[in-house]
Amino acid sequence: MSLAILGVLILGIAGGIYMPLDISSFLDQASSIMLFVLLFSVGIDLGLNRRVFLQIRQMGVRILLIPIGVVLGSLCGGAVAATILQMQVKEGMAIASGLGWYSLSGILITEAGNPIGGTISFLSNVFREMITFISIPFLVKYMNSYCAIAPAGATAMDTTLGIISKNTDGKIAIIAFVSGVTCTLIVPILVPLFL
Question: How far apart are CA 71 and CA 78, in angstroms?
Fold first, then answer.
C-alpha cells in the first residue's frame, strides 16, 4: 500500500509539472470534494462501530494525552533540528509548530517577516504528510496502532485519517480524529508564540 501511495504521489508531481495552469482551480475544487467524500466514508465506518464511542467515553480526558505528546514531540524535534542546522531554536520550534498544517504555518511565518522560515515550514509540513502516508502501515505492523497517530499531527483529522482508519480500527481512528482536531486548534496559537 505504501508503494502505491508513493507511486501515485510521484505521478501527481509529474502530472503537475506538465499540466496547464488553468486546470489548477478545478483541481482545488475536486480535491475538496474528494476530501469530503473521504471524511464521509470514514464517518460511516466509525458510525457502524458503536462500541468504539463507549470506549472513547471511558477514556475521558486521557484521550488528550496523544495530541499533547504529538505537540511536545514535534517541538522537541524542531529544537533538535534547529540546533543541528545551526538555526535559532525558537525559529525551529515555530517551523515545527505547524504540526503538518502546511497551508497555515508557512503563511504565518512568512507574514511575520521570515519568508525563508515560511518556505521551510511549508516544505517540512508537506514532507511530514507524505512521510505519514508512507510510514503508517509500517508503524502499525512493527510498533502499535497508537504510533500511527503521531506523524499525522493536524492532518489526522482529514487527509491522513483515511489511511489511519484503514490500517487500524475504529477506536484508533476516533482518537486520531480527536488528536487532529486538537492539533489543528493549537497550531494558530503555537506558531505565533515562537515567532
Answer: 10
Task: Compute the distance between CA of residue 160 and CA of residue 171 in angstroms, rounded to an integer.
Answer: 15
**Distance (Å, whole) CA 70 – CA 152:** 9
| pTM, full prediction | 0.77
| Domain range list for the chain | 64-195
C-alpha cell at 174: 476516533
Q: How many CB atoms lie within 10 A of CB 48?
A: 9
Whose cell is 480526558? That residue is: 61
The backbone region for 113, taken as left when phi is positive above 0, alpha when psi lies in -120 to 50, beta otherwise, is left
Per residue in 158-177, pLDDT (tens digit) is 889 989 989 998 889 889 98
**Which residue type is seen at 171?**
K
